[in-house]
């Protein structure tokens, strides 16, 4: 009996050793197959552009193909949930955006745990929303807008591409800080929203830089300010002031891009991915492609990104509560 017990013990230890060896070997050779990046939006948008451009450089650096998998729908929840339920082996990532931080406050129930199912990899950068008005608008500055809004609360309107979007929440933060209600006119997409702003049916919009860059450049819209804490590096927006410096100190809002891996992904793999994405984000090809978006590249550690998202979650939770915002 003792001999049988000893054999079982040795067999058990052998299995543990083999598992440890295989696990170590897998980590040591990572990556040894293609890596998939989930984009929780349709092809062709800003997030898709970021993923595909970074993927080109990452493929060269990691010596493995980078596959972009578009999974739109559910305010990014469908693609994000796919990532949450993927193996924590470093072969599946998701490009997260502003929506990742606000969904917990907008949705009654999420199919994943915001705290347990994601491993932060890296923040890539932050881009501004742009406060735009029709070209024939009487408002030539943010101060003009502030004066009019505070003189007659509840009379000025703003467009957005839907409830809970960055355009919507940027405007609600503005409204809360100036102490005057603005009328929200939601649209199904940025295109129709901007069409009505240009036509004068709506007074303003806090649109993404990528959506309005060409319209500002061609003289179809007037840019009053950008929403980030610093001015944009985009040639089209370089001379446009921030809202904070235009009469509303402390105002900050922005769209951002960052990468998550599934929760429980080994730290050594996270470090490899962090280094590769950081290298790709600093490449000339990436900087040239995102210039028109006004993206301020801001890479750091996984821990930095995790803290950044937590801060975003808390501050937008407060705005959503004060403005009583409900998801579409």
Provide structural commentary.
This protein has a six-stranded mixed β-sheet with strand order 2-1-3-10-4-11, sandwiched between helices. The chain has a five-stranded mixed β-sheet with strand order 7-6-8-5-9. The protein is built from eleven helices and eleven strands. The chain is α/β, with parallel strands linked by helices and 328 residues long. The chain has helices spanning 2-28, 46-62, 77-84, 98-106, 142-151, 166-178, 190-198, 209-217, 267-281, 284-290, 302-323; strands at 35-39, 66-70, 92-97, 118-127, 129-134, 157-160, 183-186, 204-208, 221-226, 255-262, 296-297. 45% of the residues lie in helices and 19% in strands. It folds into two domains: 32-127 and 255-323, Bordetella uptake gene, domain 1 (D-Maltodextrin-Binding Protein, domain 2); 129-246, D-Maltodextrin-Binding Protein, domain 2, CATH 3.40.190.10. The chain is globular and about 65 Å long. Helix 2 crosses helix 9 and helix 4 (98-106) crosses helix 11 (302-323).
Topology:
Layout: H1 2-28, E1 35-39, H2 46-62, E2 66-70, H3 77-84, E3 92-97, H4 98-106, E4 118-127, E5 129-134, H5 142-151, E6 157-160, H6 166-178, E7 183-186, H7 190-198, E8 204-208, H8 209-217, E9 221-226, E10 255-262, H9 267-281, H10 284-290, E11 296-297, H11 302-323
Parallel strand pairs: 1-2, 1-3, 6-7, 6-8
Antiparallel strand pairs: 3-10, 4-10, 4-11, 5-8, 5-9
Produce a short descriptive summary.
With 328 residues, the protein is α/β, with parallel strands linked by helices. The chain has eleven helices and eleven strands.
């Amino acid at each position: 009996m003792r001999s049988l017990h000893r054999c079982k013990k040795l067999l058990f230890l052998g299995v543990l050793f083999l598992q440890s060896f295989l696990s170590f070997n897998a980590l040591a050779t990572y990556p040894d197959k293609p890596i998939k990046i989930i984009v929780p939006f349709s092809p062709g948008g800003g997030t898709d552009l970021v993923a595909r451009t970074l993927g080109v450089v990452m493929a060269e650096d990691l010596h493995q193909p980078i596959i972009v998998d578009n999974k739109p729908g559910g305010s990014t929840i469908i693609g994000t949930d796919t990532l949450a339920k993927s193996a924590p082996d470093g072969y599946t990532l998701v490009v997260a955006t502003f929506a990742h931080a606000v969904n917990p406050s907008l949705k009654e129930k999420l199919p994943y745990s915001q705290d347990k199912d994601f491993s932060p990899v890296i923040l890539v950068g932050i881009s501004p929303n742009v406060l735009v008005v029709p070209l024939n608008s009487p408002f030539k500055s943010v101060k003009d807008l502030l004066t009019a809004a505070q003189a007659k609360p509840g009379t000025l309107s703003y467009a957005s591409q839907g409830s809970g979007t960055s355009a919507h929440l940027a405007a609600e933060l503005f409204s809360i800080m100036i102490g005057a209600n603005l009328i929200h006119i939601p649209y199904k997409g940025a295109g129709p929203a901007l069409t009505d702003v240009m036509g004068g049916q709506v007074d303003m919009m806090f649109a993404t830089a990528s959506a309005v860059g060409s319209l500002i450049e061609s003289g179809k819209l007037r840019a009053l300010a950008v929403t980030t804490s610093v001015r944009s590096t985009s040639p089209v927006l370089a001379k446009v002031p921030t809202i904070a410096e235009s009469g509303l100190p402390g105002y900050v809002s922005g769209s951002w891009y960052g990468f998550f891996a599934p929760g429980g992904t080994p730290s050594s793999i996270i470090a490899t991915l962090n280094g590769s994405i950081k290298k790709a984000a600093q490449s000339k090809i990436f900087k040239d492609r995102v210039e028109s978006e006004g993206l301020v590249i801001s890479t750091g550690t996984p821990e930095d990104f995790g803290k950044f998202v937590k801060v975003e979650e808390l501050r937008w939770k407060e705005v959503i509560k004060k403005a009583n915002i409900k998801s579409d």
